[in-house]
């Protein structure tokens, strides 16, 4: 499996996530955890709660359309695994988010920026699990 190195796209995405995180904290006093935003969208506590979550999710989903307007091309997305593997991966992520009390954006971006010890432990755990998974999939299973 070949990995494409995309430093400018990755840096741009990271900067946008950082800006969104800071603005959400400044404007609403909320931590930007993508799974928490999505979960709250389906069970909002108020109309205002629903509105900011809907606007944030719409912005996240409309990224490819913005790229189409800027470049004239939709981004190429390659998913090198089967649908059952995607479903299993989604289930594992959902369980991890539940037991970890948040996701990589909540802990890794916002929590670490706030110097939360819990977020440092969670982010280190995410990274270790990622390294092990990539090693097993690429080198032991040969996928």
TrEMBL record:
InterPro entries: Sulf_transp_TsuA/YedE
Keyword Membrane carried by entry: yes
Locations listed in the record: Cell inner membrane
Keywords from the named record: Cell inner membrane, Cell membrane, Membrane, Transmembrane, Transmembrane helix, Transport
Coiled coil region boundaries: none
DNA damage in keyword set: no
GO CC annotation terms, alphabetical: plasma membrane
Pfam families the UniProt entry points to: Sulf_transp
Transmembrane intervals: 15-42, 54-71, 83-100, 120-141
Highest taxon above the source species: Bacteria
Membrane topology classification: Multi-pass membrane protein
Family: Belongs to the TsuA/YedE (TC 9.B.102) family.
Protein name: YeeE/YedE family protein
């Amino acid at each position: 499996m070949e990995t494409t190195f995309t430093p400018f796209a990755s840096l741009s995405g990271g900067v946008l996530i950082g800006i969104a995180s800071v603005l959400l904290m400044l404007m609403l006093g909320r931590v930007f955890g993508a799974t928490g935003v999505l979960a709250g969208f389906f069970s909002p506590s108020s109309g205002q709660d629903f509105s900011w979550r809907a606007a944030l999710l719409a912005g996240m989903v409309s990224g490819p359309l913005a790229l189409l307007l800027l470049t004239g091309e939709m981004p190429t997305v390659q998913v090198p695994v089967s649908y059952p593997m995607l479903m299993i991966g989604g289930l594992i992520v959902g369980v991890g988010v539940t037991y970890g009390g948040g996701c990589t954006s909540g802990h890794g971006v916002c929590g670490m920026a706030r110097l939360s010890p819990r977020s440092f432990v969670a982010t280190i755990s995410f990274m270790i699990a990622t390294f092990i998974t990539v090693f097993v999939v690429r080198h032991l299973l040969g996928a």
